[in-house]
Amino acid sequence: MTSLTQGNIGTPAPQTSRQSLVDACQNPDEYPTNLPGASMSKRTLKEYQNLLESRGKTLFAQNGASTGNSSSSWTLLQEQDDQADFSSGYTKSRCSQLEELEFQLYEQKKQDPRCRLIFIQSGISNRPLGGSREMMSYLLSYHQVSPRFLDLLFLFCGGRHLPPNDNNFIHSAHFYQDNVINELCHPTRFAIPALGRSGRLLRLCYNLWAAEKNEADRGQPGWFFRQTAMYHSLDVETAKTFWINIKANGLMRRRMQQITEEEARPPSKSPKNELVSKALLNSLDLHMAAVEWSTECWPGFIRDIEDELSTIMVALANVPVGKLEEALRVNTTDLLRQIAPPVTQQDDITNPLMKVAFKSDMTESTCMPGQGLPSQDCRGIPLNRLQATVQNVTGAASEPRTSKVPVIVDPFLLLEDFRFEQLQRLTRMGARLRQTSLIMEMNLNVMLELAEFYMLLQQAYELPLGLRVKIKSGVLVFQQRVECCIKMMKLQKSRVEMLLGTVASGKILCESIMQLRNTSISQLFLIAAHQTAADMRKIADKTERQTASMHIITLVTLIFLPGTFVATFLGSGLFQWDDNDPELRFPRWKPEYFNLFAGICFPLMFLTILGWLIAYIFGTNNRRSANAMWRKKEALRTWGSVKEAMVGFWAWGKKWLTQRTEEDRIPP
């Protein structure tokens, strides 16, 4: 036999249980420290109280004001014991303020209903819950809810304004049980007969996650991860059950309401074991509503991800990488031939033949003797390549050299459909799938613990033997249904793991394509640089030849220039020989001719030098004026920034002084 009780029940206060409940309801803000006989230390309860007080300001709607919206109010379904048997005994009501909740729970002066369900919703999954912190504290105090339920309550995103599909949000799912059924020796220790409570309870709470799809007319379309939290307690003596369900939309409320309408309800005067067993088996159906909700969504969710991933992977697999490599292929032979020193047109035919013949000789000299084929260390060119080289060279010599306009085709048009956005989509999809795998793993753990909890009831010595016999078949059916859901979720989880591997392969392929594109672009730049270097080499060779010619011209000029100058000067008429005087040894000087030459040549030289000097001075002044204007503009711009800063500082100081003056005027 096993025990279902967790922890040690604390020592009760020296007062009646009803008075303890009254005190707890009168001070709901002290929850959970106001609970009698809590199974936690006072320090832990105080921490829960502080957390509820701090997070309750953003977790619930402000002041619990009624807005007329169903999502801002709580829905209560209650089945009273005095309803007609085998009839729909559930009454539905709403409350959005603390006074309305107090009237529904306590001020009616009636016992607790046979079954009470409270549904709490919010307008959007990441917005505050309906109601108020005061209402939640009062509800938890009145029904003496286990403090562990607060751990599930704090998982809701009220007030944090997270995106509804945030991939960085870490999800969490838990299962807690806090039973109080070991009071066989003291059955009235926590009993409140006026409310129909025996004090012996099965208490459990858990939360589950699932993916829900929004339609286009209901906000942002797509799949979103959403959770539901459940709290359940069952009195094993009076068969009274209590439920709290928290979910953003009303899906769980509608499903659970439909189950309560169709459940089997025995007459209120039936034996105790009959009432308790029916209440427990009915609660299993409500648990299955949450389990099935967390399981049924994954096939459609994974199918949509598969379709999106398939589109990306097909696009990546069909990228014409081969065509890009073919378009960017470089003939290394031609490249090496262009790197070789330039030769004349006559040597264009002889030099390649000489190189090929030389290489073939080297090949024959380095081959292994006695073998027809060259060894691995041979570096020669085979005969077929030699013949091809000769044909290419002779063909190039025989054909006329004509310039052809090349047709340029952009090879990167082949990658036009490839975008970096695909890598981002794969990254988001991978994060989404990892979240899905985590959610499934946590849901599986919660389902296993839920099934195990009810399986242990068949061996719990705290429950009567007759009750355990009555619930045995129903618990077995419940276990089978949960195991079926677990198998389905494990199957979907294996698909998620496979998709994670596909996403990883897609990211590697995507990064490889990006590296290929970058390498190809670098290759284009290298080819362009090589072409530029080849052009510069041609220019350098041409300049070298022209420089050699200029050197020759300069040398010839230096040799003949003195003689040419002397011959020109003597032949200008400044010196004349007298043919009638054969004995004249030196020609006669003609000063009048020299004066005419000097009167024309020297003024022209002076005017030329003066004109260039004026142009130089004018250009220098213009440059100086432009530089001075630029410095002036820079100085004005700098002064404008400083002035603007000073004006801003003066305005701030004036505003600060005004505020201080107004504060001083306010009386203490």
Written account of the structure:
With 668 residues, the protein is an alpha+beta fold. The chain has helices at residues 17-26, 42-59, 98-105, 133-142, 149-153, 251-262, 272-296, 298-317, 321-327, 332-339, 347-366, 383-398, 420-456, 465-570, 591-665; strands spanning 74-79, 90-95, 115-120, 175-177, 201-214, 222-235, 241-246, 575-576, 588-589. Helices cover 56% and strands 9% of the residues. Residues 6-14, 64-68 and 344-403 have low confidence and may be disordered. The relative contact order is 0.07. Among the domains are: 17-302, Beta Polymerase, domain 2; 588-665. It has a seven-stranded mixed beta sheet with strand order 2-1-3-7-6-5-4, with helices on both faces. A two-stranded antiparallel ribbon has the order 8-9. Strand 5 and strand 6 (222-235) form a beta hairpin.
CATH topology of one domain: Beta Polymerase, domain 2
Which percent band covers the strand fraction? 5-15%
Number of helices: 15
Give the name of the CATH architecture of one domain.
2-Layer Sandwich
What's the rounded overall pLDDT mean?
A: 78
Order of helices and strands: HHEEHEHHEEEEHHHHHHHHHEEH
Low confidence ranges: 6-14, 64-68, 344-403
Q: Tell me the structural class.
A: alpha+beta
Quickly name the level 1 CATH class of one domain. Answer: Alpha Beta
User: What separation lies between the terminal Cα atoms?
Assistant: 71 Å
What is the alpha-carbon Rg in Å? 49 Å
Tell me the CATH superfamily of one domain.
CorA soluble domain-like
User: Can you give the helix content as a percent range?
Assistant: 55-70%
What characterizes the major β-sheet?
7 strands, mixed
**Shape assignment:** elongated
> How many individual β-strands?
9
Strand order of the largest sheet: 2-1-3-7-6-5-4
